[in-house]
Amino acid sequence: MTRLMRIEKWCLWGHVLSMAFGLAGLLWVMPHPEILAYLPAGSTLYRWSMAGGGVIYIVLGTIAVALYTRRVYGWKTLLSFLLPAIAISLSSELSGTSTGFPFGDYSYLNGLGYKIAGLVPFTIPLSWFYLGISSYLLARGGLMAMRASWWRQVTAIAVGALLLMSWDFVLDPAMSQTAMPFWYWHQPGAFFGMPYENFAGWFCTGAVFMTVAAVLWRQNERLMGLTKQQLVLPLIMYLTNFAFAMFMSLGGGIYVPILLGLVIGVLPAVVCWLLAPDERSVIDLTAEPQPDLPVLEMTATPATASK
Fold it and tell me: Domain count of the chain?
C-alpha cells in the first residue's frame, strides 16, 4: 500500500469517525451537558467539536474522495469534475445567499468555516464535490455498464442529480431546524421549513456540473464499465453521509424526509451499485479471444490395428 493510499484510507475513516463524534456531541452531550463532567477534558473537546467539527469531516471527506478519484481514474478525471463542481456550486450558493435564486432565501450561520464573500462557507462547495462525484459515479456504474449510449448518459446524469438532491431531503431539515442550526431560512417553506424550489435548485445545480463532467469524460475509457469493486468508496461516502443526516433528523423528530430520502436516494444508490458488473466479469468480457487450437486426428497404425 502506497503512502497516498494510506492517507486516503485514514481520511475516509477519519471522515466517518468525525461524523460519529459530531453526532454524539449534538444528540447526546448537548441535551445532557452534565456528561462533560465525567469526560477527561470534556468541556474543551466539546467546544472544539462545536467550533470546527463540521469543517473537519468535510475536509477529510474531500481529501479521501479526491485521492480515490486520482488513484482509480487519474488526475484528468479528478480535475475535470472537481473544478466545474466547485465553480458551479459556489456560484449557485453565492446567488442563493444574496438573491434567493435558485434555492430560496437563506443564510449560513457559524460552524462550517471561513465564509467566501462573507456568505458561503468554503466547505460547502467541497461537500458538493465529494457527494456529487460519489452520486454520479454510482449512477454511471449502474446505468452505463459496458455501454454508453446518449440516453444512458442523460439518465445517469438525472439519477446522479436525484441522488444528490435526495441527500438534501434529509440534510436540510437536520442542519437548519435542530438544536444547533448551521443555516436558516428567512422565509420558511412548506416542506418541513424548506421551500420546494430548494430541491429544484439542488437537482439543477448537480445536473449542470455532472453534464460538464460527462462531456469532458466522453473519451475516457477508464470510466467505462465501472465495477462494484471500484464503486465501494462512493457507496460508503453516500451511505455514511446519508446516515449522518438521518440521525440528525431523527434527533429533531423529523421523519418524513428520511422516508423520502431512503426511497429516492439510498435505494437507487444501492441498486446502481448492485447493477455494476463484478471485476471478474469485466475482465472476461474484455479479454482477447484465444485462437482455436488445431484438432489432432489420431489414426491407428497397421501395427496397432493388428493387436
Answer: 1
Which residues contact residue 168 at a Cβ distance below 8 angstroms, ignoring those fewer than 6 apart? 198, 199, 202
List pLDDT tens digits, range 22-44: 777 666 555 555 565 566 655 55
User: Using CA atoms, how far apart are residues 157 and 211, in angstroms rounded to an integer?
Assistant: 7
CA angle, residues 65, 114, 64, in degrees to nearest 5: 10
Residue 169's identity, in one-letter code, is F
Residue 267 in domain: yes
What is the C-alpha separation between 284 and 88, in angstroms, rounded?
39
Q: What is the pTM of this model?
A: 0.86
Query: Is 55 within a domain?
Result: no
For the stretch 176-219, pLDDT in tens is 876 678 898 998 888 888 899 999 999 999 999 999 999 999 88
124-166 residue pLDDT tens: 999 999 999 999 999 999 998 656 678 889 999 999 999 999 9
Tell me, yes or no, whether 63 lies in a domain: no
In a domain, 10, yes or no: no
What is the residue range of 179's domain? 73-283
